[in-house]
Amino acid sequence: ESLSPASSSQDIALSVVVPVMNEVQSVQPLYQQLSAQLEQLGKAYEVIFIDDGSTDGTFAELQKLHDAYPGIVRVVRFRRNFGKTPALVAGFSRCRGEIIFTMDGDLQDDPQEIPRYIEKLNEGYDLVSGWKFPRLDPISKTFPSRIFNWMVSTMTGVHLHDINNGFKAYRRELIQDPYLKLYGDFHRFVPVMAHWRGFNVAEIKVRHHPRKFGSSKFGARRFA
Ligand code: UDP
Ligand code: MG
Questions:
Q1: Which pLDDT does position 3 carry in this prediction?
Q2: Do the Cβ atoms of 128 and 168 come closer than 8 Å?
Q3: pLDDT tens sequence across 25-49
């Protein structure tokens, strides 16, 4: 993938950035669901997949999508697994849309919620974050997540219920903010940094699904 934002000849309204690591069974159905939804909006869009060092054939599936939907599906491949933050940064630095979505590649996030995010942005927000409700994950995930969300909310003054949700919408200005430096595992704190930079951050309740294929890529390490 060599297309830089500067080489954009078309005005792209929406970019969707999807980090994937070993999601071979999910990427095709995800793209079909996502594109069906995006087509309904009637705006030019692109979907950027970041293959974060998959070893299970995910990249071959992404190549098929890229060949089938040239100019719409873009694929960045990392030489090894770098983590979700670098994957999102790779997408942010290449995307061309005025509105940028991030979503997980495991079919847990529901593309049908996209219009609701856009409505919320249009109310005057710069970042809209999803709140998985009701949450369909195992208690081993939901309980630590509650503690994390409570801690972040108390310590930063940014009162979100599900800050770590991968399904978010951003205005371009926000992701281009030079002070929003993302490294390590900082994708978890984008709403906090955005708030500190004076951007308006909102949360909406969204439907989500239990993981269908494969397994979670974050073990107990995430809690540390
Ligand atoms: N992911 C990634 N790199 C990683 C870990 C995860 O690109 O090092 C992707 C993963 O493939 C998925 C998304 O990030 O598309 C969220 O990961 P996961 O579903 O495992 O997280 P969980 O839902 O368990 O929090
Ligand atoms: Mg998941």
A1: 57
A2: yes
A3: 999 999 999 999 999 999 999 999 9
Tokens of 128: 């809209």
- Are the CB atoms for 137 and 174 separated by under 8 Å? no
Q: How far apart are CA 10 and CA 96, in angstroms?
A: 9
Query: Which residues of the chain form beta strands (DSSP E)?
Result: 14-20, 45-51, 73-77, 99-102, 127-132, 168-171, 201-206
Structure tokens given for 9: 């000849």
Protein residue with its CA nearest to atom 21 in ligand 1: 216
Which residues have C-beta within 8 Å of that of residue 32, sequence separation ≥ 6?
A: none
- Nearest-CA residue for atom 8 of ligand 1: 83
The token pair that represents 177 in the structure block: 């903010």
Mutate to test the pocket of ligand 1, among 106, 141, 206 (most ligand atoms within 8 A of CB): 106
List pLDDT tens digits, range 126-175.
999 999 999 888 888 889 999 999 999 999 999 999 999 999 999 999 99
Residue listed under structure tokens 């983590």 = 83
Structure tokens at 124: 């005057």
Rounded distance between C-alpha atoms, residue 1 and residue 214, angstroms: 26
Q: At what angle do helices 27-41 and 114-122 cross, to 10 degrees?
A: 50
Mean pLDDT, the chain, rounded, equals: 93
